[in-house]
Amino acid sequence: MKDRVPLPVRSLLRETGQLADRRRVRVYATGGFVRDLLIGIPNLDLDLAVEGNGIRFAKALAQRYQARVTTHDRFGTATVTLADGPTFDVATARTESYDSPAALPTVRRSSIEEDLRRRDFTINTLAIRLNTPHFGELVDHHGGRRDLKDKAIRVLHGLSFIDDPTRVFRAIRLEQRLGFQLDRNTAVLMKEAVNMKICHRLSPSRLSAEFLHVLSEREPVKTLARLADFNLLPLIHPQLKWSPGLARLLNAVEKAIQWHAGLSLGPLASPWVVYGMACMEALPQPAVQETLARLTLPGRQTQSMLWVAQEGARLLRTLNRTVKPSETFRALCTLPEETLIFLMATTRSKQTKQKITDMVTTYRKVKPVLTGHDLQTMGLEPGPLYNRLLKRLFDARLNGEVETKADECRLVNRLAKRR
User: Fold this and answer.
1) What is the mean pLDDT of residues 91-96?
2) pTM to 2 decimals?
3) Domains of the chain
């Protein structure tokens, strides 16, 4: 831990253990933080498990750091947000039982051993003790470290996917993200669960969350292809199938996102939306509307995906006909960045690609030199005329009709005389 965890985080963990000593509880770092620490992947997404009352401990921790705490009483968990930004989860060590397949679990307090036994895969059952006498000691009851070394994704028991079908998606995401392989028995159990249609019992909200996680992966194309291997894409819609066309479009989207990243315009807010648009492109129009109505994805992004499905092809035809930069700007200026990237991925026209590039890199930065104050100084009476003149100046700038402030003044004078 000393060499791989930044000093501020290491200090936080040590002080957390000291607080646990004073409160006479045991506390452990668990989950992806420990897994990734052992294989050398940066991950500061902290999860803590407490043998005792996790919510009470989280409140004490929040008080110690003057942090904000949000509790989730049903599951005995809390989220602590420090003043400088970092957030971590604190959970009561617990066991879970399932009344029926795909149901949410019934929770009761337990030991760390039982808490780790309820986890999804062995590589996620590792924990690090934080209490002072044993700070930094690894807890490994299920061979998690061995499976990390073997790069294997292995479930803990035969009913794992029956109890929680979302583990099917998590197994594939971890496999692709880490470059691991499903253990042979785990792959068999997954196929059996899929064939039993256990995943069909997931609620739309839980299925939507898993689809969103898949699209948000660092390499979602590989992850979607692997979902197709297990016939999971039809869960999104029965007509969504893997095909050479979908693969080409997804790869084009990946390249377009990389193109945008290379422009140094700042991170894209929701890259997952562009991959979602590609998936919707593989469906007929009624199926897109049905899918987006059923899934509980964020509203603005859902509207973008629906708009592209309905209007994207028409807009590309419009762009093919635009001649002046101002015409291109008017066609594209209201669209989110994700939509522009998808259009870049779908068009085969070099001219259209260049127009989108100009929009993203240049047109949005253009503005007239003259302002409303300048128009007033020129003796023009304030009113609706100002908006028309400034819009015309903007178009003239885009189209290269004016280059200097003097050019703009001459254009304004000509336009004003025509009133």
Assistant:
1) 82
2) 0.89
3) 7-150 (3.30.460.10), 236-363 (1.10.3090.10), 372-417 (no CATH)
